[in-house]
Amino acid sequence: MNDLLKRITFDPNIFGGKPIVRGMRMSVEMILDLLSQGATIEELLEDYPNLEADDIRACPAYAKTVVANEDVDVFANA
User: Fold this and answer.
1) Per-residue pLDDT of the chain (78 residues; tens, 9 = 90+)
2) Is 73 part of a structural domain of the chain?
3) What are phi and psi for residue 28, nearest 5 degrees?
4) Which range of residues forms the domain containing residue 63?
5) Number of domains the chain contains
6) Under 8 Å CB-to-CB from 65, ≥6 apart: which residues?
7) Can you give the pTM of this predicted structure?
8) Is residue 44 a part of any domain in this protein?
């Protein structure tokens, strides 16, 4: 799971530092919202060609980590 979580980054210049996917202007929040509305990984990959399947899988993994109140130090950006 750590490999997935490394895809989630933070940049104070993008969405005010909210979690994003690989430094892109794709917020974890947006991906989770689309998934909760029933979008499939395949649909998201078609609509957002810069995304990779593991980017999408990383979003629920990140949400689970936050909700479980687990250590999020793995998200420290180099």
Assistant:
1) 789 999 999 999 999 999 999 999 999 999 999 999 999 999 999 999 999 999 999 999 999 999 998 665 655 554
2) no
3) -60, -40
4) 2-68
5) 1
6) 1, 5, 72
7) 0.84
8) yes
